[in-house]
Amino acid sequence: MELQAGDTFGRYELVSWLGRGGMAETWRAQLMGAAGVTKSVLIKKVLPEYADDEAFISMFISEARISATLSHGNVAQVFDFGQVEDEYFLAMEFVDGKPLDKVLKRALKAGLGALPIPVAVFIAMEMCRGLHYAHTRTDSSGKPLGIVHRDISPDNVLISYEGQVKIVDFGIAKAQLLRGFKTEPGVVKGKYLFFSPEQARGEDVDARTDVWATGIVLYELLCAKLPVEGPPQTVMMKIAHGQVPAPTTLRPDLPKELNDLVMQALAPDRKRRFESSHAFGDALAGFLHAHYPRFSSLSLANLLRVLFRADLMHEGRELTVPGAFHDEAKKWGGPALTKLLDAPPPEQVQTRRLPRAAAKPPPPETTQPDAPTIPTGRSRRALYGASAVGGLAVVGASLWFLMDARSPAPVAPPPVAVVEASVPKTAAVEAPTAKAEPPPAQAPVEEPPEAVAAAPAEHLEEPAPAKPAHSTRKSSVRTVRATQRVQAEEPQPVPVVEEPAPPTVVAASAVQEPPPAVEQSAPAPRKGVLGLLDSKRQEVQQKVTSLVKTKQQQFSGLLQSKDYDAALEAANDCAKNNPGVPECHLMLGDVHAKMNHPRESTQHYETFLKLAPADHPRRARVQEVLGKSGATN
User: Fold this and answer.
1) Which of 239, 270, 291 is the last residue of a domain?
2) Locations of Low complexity compositional bias (predicted)?
């Protein structure tokens, strides 16, 4: 069944869609109790297309059986398991924070290079606590369950805004007492970049496999790079032979003591590794307390609030960061973190922007099916380049229109000249300059998306026509002005994309494909200079249309790779350079919805409806989304 926010799902009321993985989707929901008592939970529901997949359902049920027995501060707890209309689901603890992979990505964007040493060590230490608890779980008779997670990676670790570290997703964990859950010889499960040597060889695994994976996670947090990368066969061959470079080869400033701890966790022979996650965690705790005695979960919470303060402000939340943390962090964070801490809060940056009059991009999407990762740096530069070319095309179009308006004959331009409606007043100033990628150190000061999208707002008015040069032409100039005013009031045709882009596979997303070409009766071609201007205008419009189509395809790829920051930048670029193109606002609405920004999403959807023609293929879907949003507010 297709679900929407506000729907009832068993005993739960769905609040917002959080994401979609390869075989399941997640929702934030509320458990509705008696007398209005509610509890926030996360619903993990099997996708309908996999409801009949016996192998996956078996693994999903196994996850429920294992997770339901776990209750630890470093493990996300499972509260409920069941079926609603033949769809299996898990109801688990909702962690108010971010996945560890997003935390690392934001730190890199903020210019930190990698996570500060005490932050990385503390996270790995807390992971060890949760894993050791799972490894040592017993049944009612005291017999060990033999649980091994086998899929430890940054995206399966959640960091809360309170500084808690929670391990999630025991979907492929192995418990020896679960019948039918023993892996066949030679079969491997998990993410190959985090495989232990025995996992890479397809051998049986034990708790020391999770020790290895925790060491890989710590390596990535410290160095911002995995020790071994490449295609599966290359990675697994190097791991199986223990070809792992020391962290100091990538980060020479690491203390030798910490480097040795990481390398012991990554020993190819599991007998030489830490004998348990508890032993590894204790070693990390000794290092942390010896070198950073004041570091605690509150330190991690404050860093997270600084890194994601723009997101929090955008959600209308203000989580305070005490001044004492600034002094503490500057001692172990380096100049990049000092610059981040000294940066003005988002509200102050927003005051430098122009008034918020422009429409904002639309919403949906939270997480999509696993898709190939798009290299963030290159893809963003490509998007900026496309935006710059699009801006130049708009400038060219505006020059041709000005020439046409000054021609002696008061002949209205043909309907095909669509670009007039989408030329902002500032296009001649802003468009030629390609948008440079901001230096990483300034990224954390980035403003909420609405501030970015609002920039061209005050320039939406058409410039007033220049006064006539000769009084003898006053009558004809007035006629031209009147004709232009009438044209400005009439709805302008939308740039069309001749070939639809691949649909976005996202529930609740309104963007799937560009609008089909709108057929118009072609006017008789004009001759001479006017005919040349017509052909130039059509050529410019074709370029703009092609650029918008390319932008949509790149935007769709960024959404599928869950790089919402880059998707938002791409959509903002599109709207800034082409404010009259409805597809740009449709993209903005979608990405804001995915980022759980309902207000901005609604604004951009409404702008899309104002700009899009009545027969636009996405109008009905957007109206439906807005209708449901209004019903739930």
Assistant:
1) 291
2) 489-499
